[in-house]
Every structure is written in structure tokens, then in C-alpha cells.
Amino acid sequence: MVKHRSTLWYAALAVGWAFDILYWKKPPGISFLIHVILLLGALALLSWKEGLKPARSSLYLVPLILAFSALGFLREEPFTRTLNHLLSLGFLGTLLLSYQGGRWYAYSLSDYLVGGFRLMINALSLPFQLISTREEVESGEEAESPRGWKKILPYLRGILIALPLLAILAALLSEADPIFSKWLQDLIELLRLEKLPEYILRLALIAIWTFLAAGLLLYALTRSKHEKLVGQDKPWPPRFLGFTETAVILGAINLLFFSFVTIQFKYFFGGEKNIALDGYTYSQYARRGFGELLAVAFFTLFIIMVLSGITRRETRSSRVAFSALTGAMTAFIGVILVSSLQRLTLYESAYGFSRLRTYSHLCILWIGVLFLAILALEIAQRHRYFTLAALAAVTGFVLTMNAVNVDGTIVRRNIQRLQEEDDPLDTQYIHSLSNDAIPTLIDLVDDPYLSSSEREEIGALLACRERTLSELTGERPWQSFLVPTYRARVALEKNPGLWEGFTVQEDQYGVQYIEGGTKKFYCGGYRGWD
Which tens digit of pLDDT belongs to each residue from 401-429? Predict the structure, then answer.
């Protein structure tokens, strides 16, 4: 399978042991980037040792993997961080699947599903095959005296088997004799053996991750060259639906969209007066439906992709008609997306910005881009690249979320909203945001539209956050380092006057609150780095 088996196992062991060092009882921070770099380094080392060259197109995935791994500790807002980690792992899996073949850009959704399943199965089975082939080779050779670590291996196996047996027997003997029990407790305290179950568990986890890392590396080195794309020779799923049926479906949907868009122009784009005629306020009309319109856009995109894959289009006229019908749907969806965006804007104007509303704002824009890309690919008859377009749109969406700083944007827009609305600033909601928001909040604390009461609440909020970060500084391991936490800490240290006179106290239940203001302010809301 591979010529340098020992190097493979050492590299896999390094990846597995790093999992324990980086993540055991430690929330992920910069550790995620370090672990990804270690795995990529192991893959590069083994490729060099084996004399294998990765496909050039697969190397384009490496910057994406590193970028999203780094963004995982450059942002603390939970959803953005989660998407960063998931995209990094997704691109990493794609790299392993197409490491030598390099045809990942032509993967369809079926290829990703089948490839992911194949990668998982091989990660579990290939190490067993490597061990079994090694034993077959050694059994066919003349017996030689063991060398190096092979002399130690039987002893290690014996110790690992003996440890749990000793633990069971020692526990029984301790119950049988109090003197032996006291002696055993003294020995445990001396050798700190009370953590023996934890050590055994950690060794087991290291072994599991070593095994999986070996399987993933083996797949990239030995199996990734033979890429057979699903539906390459014959379309899959087979195109079984006639064009007439599809034309009826698309025509009916277009007619429905035309009716809806006509109403939108009359009642929504016509202004507030038209809405008020039917008994709705602007905020009521805005609150009702922007989520549903977003769902309509997603469902329509799904319909187009499915019909494109299963509809027979043997003649040029059928292909042109299909493209025209999907083009009309795309135009109607564009109007619906604008309607959804305007409803969302009205909702934000009435109730302020939140994380979900900010996600929706950015998502609507990228859905529009994806619809245009799907339409262009349909016209060009490049259906296999639909999945690539969707992947590019998701990548753009996540990059945009990182660029705009979701929590910082919420603070900025909600304070700007005070210029037009009389509603007070929701400082309790702001307190629930991550450290991404703290530098922005400090920069805007002197905004003239903030009332004295709101400034006092912001000061209490900053006092709570400073206390929380001070308590976490000594507990935070280097593996959990996050840039937003560091930036928030620095910003708070440079502006101590913002919460001067506020002190953090604890009540009889251990709940922290602020003392020194005109009203009571509780510090609950922000969960910290864990």
C-alpha cells in the first residue's frame, strides 16, 4: 500500500496525540488551525517520501482550508465560528478525496455524498488492511531477531492489558482489608493514580484518532487518484421526466409568482398608504412573511436543480424553452428576494438588529447571486457545476459574515437606529453578544444620541465584561486563544474610565450584579469562551 509504513504511523500518531494536547478539556481556539496545519504537513511529508505529486487543482483547496481555519479564531460570534470550522473541514475532506485526481470542481451533490461515505469507510478499514499486509510480509520472511521498538512493543501490550485487570482486583482487595486499602490510597496519592481512569481514556482517544488519521492519509495517498464521478458515463439520476410535464410545472409556478409579484407592486412597493388600506401597519406587514419568502427562494432553487437533473431535453427547442422558463422564475425570485429584503429592513427599523436578522440580510444577497449563477450554468448546459456554484455561494456568504463582523455590526446599527427611533437601546441583548462587539461598543459610547441612562447601562455592561475577562485570563490555556478576546481585553484596559464607579458584586446565590449605578444591572448573558 505504502512504502514508508513507519513514517505513516508516526505522522498519524503525531496528529492523534495533538488532539489530546490541543483539545482535552480546552475549548477550540488557535488549536484548530494548528491541528489542521499538522495534518496538512503530515500529508505533504508522506507525499514527498512516497514520491507522489498532488493534482494542481487540489492544491487550490489548501489556501481555503487554511483561511477558514484561521478565521475560526479571528471571530468569536458562535454561528460564524461554527461555519468557519465546518467549511474548513469540508474543504479538507474534499482535498483528501481528490488529492491526486483533482476533479473536485466537477463534483455533483451525489459525488460529495458518495465520496464522504467512501472516505469514512476507508478511514476505518485501510489501517486494518495495512496491518494485515504487514503481517503477511513478515510471515513470509525468515524470522529475524526483533530490533528497536519491536522489542518494547510486547511489554507495552502486556501493560495495557494488565492495567484494567489490576484496577479491578485492587478495588476488591481494598474492600476486603482496611490496612491494604489505606496502603493503596497512600500509594495512589503518592503517584497521583486517582487520574488513572482519565489517563486510560485519553490514551484510548489518542489511539482512535491515530487510527483515523492513518486511514485518511492512506486514502489520499492510495485511493484518491481513481476518481469516478457519479453520472459521468450515464446521467444519474436518469432523466425520466418528459419536457411537457416539466413545462407545465414551471409554467404553473411562474403564473403563481406573477400573481404574487403583482400584489407586491401594488401593496408593498406602492408605499405605506396602500398597506394601511388593508388594515396593516408597516411593522406588521414587515414582520409577516420575510422568513416565508426566504423559504420560497430556497425551495424554488431546489425545484430548478431537481427538474434540471431529471428532465429529458433532446431537442434544441426544449432546451431553449426550459432555460426561458427557469429564467422567468429567476426574475420573479429576484423580485421576491427584494421584497423579503425590504420587509426585513422594515422589521429591523421597528425592532432593531439581531443576529438572525443580520444572517438573513447577508443570506438573501448570496441567494440572489446563486440564482444568477444557476441560470447561467443552465443556459450553458453545464449542469454538473451546479454544486460548485452552490459551494462558491456558501463560501462567499461565510466570508462576508467574517468581513462584516456580525456582532459589531449589530451594535453599530442599533446605535445608529437611535437617530430615527425613540426606542431605547437594548443593552441586555448587547451584553449577550460576543467579544467581537466590545471594541465597536467602546468606539461608539460617546454617540450623542445615547441617553445618560443608556451610557450608564453600557458602563455597567463593560464593568461586567472586564470582570469576566479578568477571571478568564488566568484560566485560559494558550490552545484556546481567540483574537476577539484579546482585542476586547486591550480595549477595556485602555478605557477604564468608561465604567469608573461601578463595582461587580455577588448576591447570596452567586449571581453577579453591578453596584454604583442608579439601578441594578445583572451581569448574566455573556457565556465567555467556553
Answer: 999 999 999 999 999 888 877 778 888 88
228 within domain boundaries: no
Task: Provide the number of structural domains found in the chain.
Answer: 3
DSSP sequence for 325-377: HHHHHHHHHHHHHHHHHHHHHHHHHHH---HHHHHHHHHHHHHHHHHHHHHHH
* Sign of the Cα pseudo-torsion (163, 166, 170, 172, in order): positive
H helix or E strand, kind and range, residue 432 = none
Q: How far is CA 220 from CA 39, 177, 192, 391, 502, in A?
A: 12, 56, 42, 22, 58
Q: Hey, what's the torsion of the CAs at 490, 495, 501, 504, to 10 degrees?
A: -20
Q: Hey, is 108 helix, strand or coil? A: coil
Neighbours of 300 (CB within 10 A): 20
For 176, the domain range is 5-137+150-222
Same-domain check for residues 396 and 500: no
Task: Give yes or no: residues 213 and 247 share one domain.
Answer: no
Q: Is residue 362 part of a domain?
A: yes
Q: Do 278 and 367 have their domain in common? A: yes
142-171 b/e (C-beta count within 10 Å ≥ 16 → b):
eeeeeeeeeeeeeeeeeeeeeeeeeeeebe
What CA–CA distance (Å, rounded) separates 71 from 177?
58
Distance separating alpha carbons of residues 9 and 16, to the nearest angstrom: 10
**Quick one: 264 exposed, middle or buried, by C-beta within 10 A (0-12, 13-18, 19+)?**
middle
Non-local CB neighbours of 40 within 8 Å, separated by 6+ positions: 62, 65, 66
Kind and range of the H or E run holding 260: helix 243-263
> 456 is written with which cell numbers?
450608564
Q: What is the pLDDT of residues 338-380, one digit of tens each?
A: 877 877 777 777 778 888 888 888 888 898 899 899 888 888 8
Q: Which three cell numbers stand for residue 354?
A: 439581531
